[in-house]
């Protein structure tokens, strides 16, 4: 990451929430999105990991903030949404980078995306029920500007390849499962 610097391109001004962004796929995805110009909210239960990702993005010239806590709790979910809106003024993309399908957070961000005229929900990690949830979101919200997609196991073996797939989905909202 030390040789990478925020260049600000196709995601300039876009706000992204990445769950599980304190390590692994979530961290790689958050960094990849920030390198493309996105402002990123890091959501993770591990404080050290979350703040480490924020620092790495900042060192690259980007902007990120963290919310630490278990997203299974409504209070933490509310904090993620409120912090994102307060820090960035919008919520454009939600990336689930954990194997736990977090419907609480998805439900919490949808009203804000709908009020803004659209957004994207991307599932970066394979998990049971993701395909059904993507299909459900597409049917319910596609006509209102909400895109849903998932990165499947064929997107690549490593976090960098999977993160690149997430960036593509965040950019153009391709609804396919990669």
| pLDDT < 50 stretches | 174-178
Label the overall shape: globular
Helix share, percent: 40-55%
What is the count of helical runs?
6
Helix/strand/pairing class, anyone? alpha/beta
Q: What about the largest sheet?
A: 6 strands, parallel
Number of strands: 6
Question: Could you characterize what this model shows?
Answer:
Helix 1 packs parallel to helix 2. 45% of the residues lie in helices and 17% in strands. Strands 3-2-1-4-5-6 form a 6-stranded parallel beta sheet, sandwiched between helices. Residues 174-178 have low confidence and may be disordered. The protein has helices at residues 24-35, 47-59, 74-88, 103-116, 130-141, 159-172; strands spanning 15-19, 39-44, 64-68, 93-96, 119-123, 146-150. The radius of gyration is 14 Å and the shape is globular. The chain contains 6 helices and 6 strands. Helix 1 (24-35) links the parallel strand 1 and strand 2. With 178 residues, the protein is an alpha/beta fold.
Q: Which features would summarize this protein structure in a list?
A:
45% helix, disordered C terminus, alpha/beta, 6 strands
């Amino acid at each position: 990451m030390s040789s990478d610097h925020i260049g600000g391109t196709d995601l300039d001004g876009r706000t992204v929430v990445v769950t599980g962004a304190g390590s692994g796929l979530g961290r790689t995805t958050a960094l990849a999105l920030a390198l493309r110009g996105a402002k990123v909210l890091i959501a993770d239960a591990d404080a050290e990991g979350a703040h480490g990702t924020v620092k790495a993005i900042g060192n690259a010239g980007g902007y990120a903030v963290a919310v630490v806590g278990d997203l299974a709790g409504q209070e933490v979910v509310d904090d993620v949404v409120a912090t994102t809106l307060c820090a960035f003024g919008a919520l454009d993309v939600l990336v689930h980078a954990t194997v736990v399908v977090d419907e609480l957070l998805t439900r919490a961000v949808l009203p804000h995306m709908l009020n803004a005229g659209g957004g994207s929900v991307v599932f970066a990690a394979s998990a049971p029920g993701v395909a059904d949830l993507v299909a459900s979101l597409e049917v319910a919200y596609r006509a209102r500007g909400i895109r849903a997609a998932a990165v499947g196991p064929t997107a690549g073996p490593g976090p960098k390849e999977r993160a690149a797939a997430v960036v593509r989905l965040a950019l153009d909202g391709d609804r396919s499962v990669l």
